[in-house]
Amino acid sequence: MDFSIAWQKINQMGRDFMALLPNLLFGLVVFVVFIFVARGVQSLVERLLENREQSVSLKLLLSRLSYVAALILGVLITVTIIVPGFTPASLLSALGVGGVAIGFAFKDIFQNFLAGVLLLLTEPFKINDQIAYKDFEGTVETIQTRATTIKTYDGRRVVIPNAELFINAVTVNTAYDMRRLQYDVGIGYGDDIGKARQLIIEAMRGVDGVLTDPAPEALVVDLAGSSVNVRARWWINPPRRADVMAAQDRVLEAIKNTLTAHGIDLPFPTQQILYHDQTEATDGNRKSQREGWPAGEGEVPQPRAEAQREQPAAAETAAPPR
Question: What is the pTM for the complete model shown?
Fold first, then answer.
């Protein structure tokens, strides 16, 4: 067998490798240098942003992007040194349709990445803010380039893609220093509304943590089936979940104790079923409003009890003597 052709090929590959070896070694040295340069750029960006008022996640993002950008630049220069005929333009042309396919395949990743960058730049919420998104509510732990993680109040972690947070409504409970809370309190129809409102306001003013400015208030909001509903509203600071629950606990306890001590009824829902004919004389007392019908004017039917008392007397009068 003739191995001369194979030997020539191997010999040619060896000469090509030896010719490429200086460029390869120099390219590797340049790449190692760029690794240190990228780390230096990252440290420089971190120092420049250290005293600025950006969020922690934004500073981390900018430092990582600077590191990746410097590293990509080093890779391109290294490849250019090793392969002298290589240019960035040739790389783009080599990608061609493949780049479009990759773009479609990683569309969601790119979308979440861009949404994460915009969230970090616009800062609708920050780390340690408490937000509510659909059925999830908790404290923001991290804002990454792909997703945001929150810790729910019952100790669970929820990972939400950034694109959803960017295009949907998100409630930021800690966006402002103060937060208003409210609760509806039902009092009896026979109770004095003005007195009950005053007692509710006084009870809220005496609770630790309830702000005096804005002042607490009590508003009649509903004439319900079994009660007159008065809405108690008060403000707290800070507005975090633990403070909300603690303030509501103290306020409701104070309102209940105050109303009970002053004889204000706190009725529970009741239902009364009446069987009667409103046209009969033995219906209710039509001189006053009862059981849902209006009071009559002028001559009105007798009350049921009075009619029942008159019936035995009329029967005795009509009875013949023995």
Answer: 0.64
